[in-house]
Amino acid sequence: MLVSRWTRWACSALTIAAFGGVAQAQEKPQYGGSLSIGTNTPTLAPLSWDPADWNYKTAQDAGLYYDRLFGADFSKSKAQGGPYLFKSDSFLPSDAVVGDLAETWKWLENPLRLEVQLRKGVMFPAKPGVMASRELTSADVVYSYNRLLTSAKRYPEFVDYVDKVEGPDKYTVVITFKHFHEDWNFRLGGGVYSSVYPKEVVDAGISDWKNANGSGPFMLSEYVNGNSQNYVKNPLYWGKQKIGGTEYKLPFVDKLSIRILKDEATRYTALRTAKIDLLQAISWTAHEELKKSAPQLKWARWLAHGSSYIAMRTDTKPFDDVRVRRALNMAVNKQEIITSFYGGNAELFAYPQHPDYGAYFEPLSAMPESIKELYTYNPDKAKKLLAEAGHPNGFSFKAHICACDPVLMDLAPMVAAYLAKVGVKMELEPLEQGAFFSLMRAGKNHPGMAYTNSHGGPTSGLRKNFMVGQYNNNSKWNDPEFEKKMQAMFRERDEPTRQRMVREMTREILDKAPYIFLPTPYTYAAWWPWVKNYAGEIYAGGFWWGPVYARIWVDQELKKKMGY
Questions:
Q1: Is residue 8 left, alpha or beta, with left meaning phi > 0 and alpha meaning psi from -120 to 50?
Q2: Contact 516/524 with Cβ under 8 angstroms?
Q3: Which of 27, 212, 393, 465 has the fewest CB atoms within 10 Å around its CB?
Q4: C-alpha to C-alpha distances, 156 to 21, 150, 402, 464, nearest whole angstrom
Q5: How would you classify the pairing of strands 424-431 and 395-402?
Q6: Rounded Cα distance, 182 and 170, in Å
Q7: 21 pLDDT exceeds 60?
Q8: Any residues with CB less than 8 A from the CB of 127 and at least 6 apart, and which?
Q9: Chain centroid offset of residue 506 CA
Q10: 4 band by pLDDT with thresholds 50, 70 and 90
């Protein structure tokens, strides 16, 4: 029998206490009150309410009322003395995974399959006009997964390793694999598209937010387009957290509001005036001023799990020539961008791998010289390479950019100015959010694309950026040998071996330079002192806010004492 490294975290009766860790100073939690949050994607409205649409944003918005099989063990967070930040949108270390709907699980061989025992007594609340209250069973997991697996919108190869999903009895789910896939948990267990929901919601119309209903900590009560998503606590939610030796039922707050705040100044004003309690996306430019104007705020800082780049379509001239791509990297003074644009609040080398990924990540100092020179400003060599490639006088190209990304909208013209110094004109074409993502999904972007993309994870970062047919493969990278190496890595069960394979493939991609890789900034979160049991965590799995917000409580007396 193949025993998962994670099994030891599931063999005892696990509850969502694992999400909670140790409360701040063992304060006694308070129930009630409301919590208003500007999330780490504060400018973006929901793009879909249906997980089978394969839209990452659904994992955030619907993830507040849908559960998954697995989630994060927040007792291992750095705030609780552990090693992890839990900032990544798509990566959980293998020793920081616990059961959510899954109570226990084990791997079985011949054929390879994962057998999951579900938590008993998990309830869907009643939803007038949609469904009566009932227990969540294996049939719901099987239905949700099969609907995902057969969706016409599913990503290429993303779930191809799954043979079938079955429910042999009320509380058992068996996932049979065609072959092992190292990223199975992110792809199917606790990742972006892993929500479990009732068939009744689909029958009523799952795309309509008014029909939303799940077993998670909150229930969607109102959606004001372009303004807010409002939730109330689910009184039937099964989760609990042990604090100071006492077990408490979750969630703590009665109401939760996710604010959509597209204007940066409006976001900061809302935080400073306590119109919102917590803001997770604060730029380096604003954090010092906010510290002065609202000195009582609490803070967290981390290297962003997302970075900007200019993708160059390698299926389009002149970007089919590696000399051109390397030249454009050398033409951009990346260190000066850190100093003058980010004010020192960025790292030169942190994409597509992130330092939080441990042995999957290699620092720039460990890289060969051919990679190091891509991060060294050298306009003379850039011109030489362009001349060798047949462009002694440079060339022009167009690049799409999303108007929903204010930081990149400011940074991209600076990149264009560097390119102009070596005779290359980059013409930026801004698009609104919907048009931009529709064009990217269709693969019809200009030869250039300015984009800020999440790291994903050490293996998914390579997959989504550089494998054929992937939504975020903005350079249209197409290398059959690279594809073979990725498939071999996916099937490798030994993690140290996978780490070595990922390091080698990362070097290969960097050296061939399909992107102009740009610095990765630091970002900040701030919250008022009445926000308790929170230390800056963002995700409990793939783009999953729900378990984080379920464990926050509001000290209402302190809030009143502070005049709010």
A1: alpha
A2: no
A3: 393
A4: 37, 12, 24, 10
A5: parallel
A6: 28
A7: no
A8: 200, 201, 211, 212, 213
A9: 20
A10: very low
C-alpha span between 465 and 309 (Å, rounded): 11
pTM of the model: 0.85
CATH number for the region 306-521 comes to 3.10.105.10
Residue with tokens 């100073």: 25
pLDDT given at position 198: 98
3-class DSSP string for 523-550: EEEEECCCEECCCCCCCCCCCCCHHHHH
| Residue 125 token pair | 């609340």
Eight-class DSSP state of 78: G
> Strand pairing partners for 496?
none
The token pair that represents 508 in the structure block: 């290969």
Whether residue 19 has pLDDT greater than 80: no
Planar angle of CA 439, 445, 446, nearest 5 degrees: 150
Q: Taking the domains of the chain in order of start, what are their residue ranges?
A: 7-14+31-281+528-561, 306-521
Nearest 5°: phi and psi at 112? -65, 125
Q: Report the DSSP beta bridge partners of residue 553.
A: 532
Residues in Cβ contact with 535 at an 8 Å cutoff, skipping those fewer than 6 apart: 24, 77, 78, 79, 80, 300
Sequence-distant (≥ 6) Cβ neighbours of residue 540 within 8 angstroms:
19, 71, 72, 74, 86, 190, 546, 547, 548
Beta bridge partners of 169: 172
Question: How many CB atoms within 10 Å of residue 378?
Answer: 16
Structure tokens at 257: 């509001």
Structure tokens at 416: 């264009």
Angle CA 208–212–213, to nearest 5: 160
| For helices 322-331 and 379-388, angle between their N-to-C axes, nearest 10 degrees | 160
Q: Which amino acid is at 364?
A: L
Cβ burial 252-281 (10 Å sphere, 16+ → b, else e): bbebbbbbbbbebeebbebbbebebbbbbb
Query: The tokens of 276 are what?
Result: 């919102």
Give the pLDDT score at 13. Answer: 33
In angstroms, rounded to a whole number, what is the distance separating the alpha carbons of residues 194 and 104?
17
Average pLDDT of the residues of the chain: 92
Contact 102, 553 (CB under 8 A): no
Residue written as token pair 């993830």: 63
How does pLDDT run across 523-557, given as a tens digit for each residue? Answer: 999 999 999 999 999 999 999 999 999 999 999 99
- pLDDT tens figures, 384-422: 999 999 999 999 999 999 998 989 999 999 999 999 999
Q: Write down the residue that tokens 């001349």 correspond to.
A: 387
Which numeric CATH code is attached to 7-14+31-281+528-561?
A: 3.40.190.10
